[in-house]
Description:
By secondary structure, the chain is α/β, with parallel strands linked by helices. The chain contains seven helices and twelve strands. It folds into two domains: 2-107, Response regulator (Rossmann fold, 3-Layer(aba) Sandwich), CATH 3.40.50; 116-207, Arc Repressor Mutant, subunit A, CATH 1.10.10. It has a five-stranded parallel sheet, sandwiched between helices. Helix 5 packs across helix 7. The two termini are 29 Å apart.
Amino acid sequence: MSVLNPSEAAEVLRDLGCAVREDSPLAPPEALVANADAVIVEAADDAEVGRFVITRLRGLPRRTPVILALRTTQLTRLDPAWGHDDFVLQPYVPQELYARIRSLEWRTSDFAQPERVKAGALLIDLAGHEASVDGRRVELAPMEFALLAHLVTHRARVLGRAALLRDLWGRRGGATRTLDVHVRRLRAKLGTAAVIETVRGVGYRLVVPGATTPSDS
């Protein structure tokens, strides 16, 4: 958690057991979001400070959740178009602040939306049959998308060649070259956003750097 314009927020969050880093709002935007699951922008009595910081953060290619903190006197100046994900009033009620952070983490988590699977920089829109990396669309052929979606939803698990051919191509044996070609194409298109590992003699496993691994349940 990164806190900008810190005052009481850092102390409250540490008391709640959160790992907190305090930053200046004038620091480079990339530094403000580095290794942060979320950012709290403390505007207090000056909503324009909050708008300024959020605008800088939203200029980054990768979106980090932002909570705007301000006093009641600034509520009439609050504009949803600024791009913050939530807001909280100062002075803080510790339980409310914690609840808002937890809610924000859930809404932006890897598994919050069943039709959109997010893993690290990779986002798979299952309903729209689209994939993107850091907001940049990745052009995929229909079977490339089907293979990627299957690997992502079963990521970190080894999937056998025979099972992949059966589940995706409806084949029982043979045609392993077709599978290998699709894997090579996906590797080239995804770059470092996801790694498709070859497990010798078994099949393939997809690993996404920095992503939460789904449980086996």
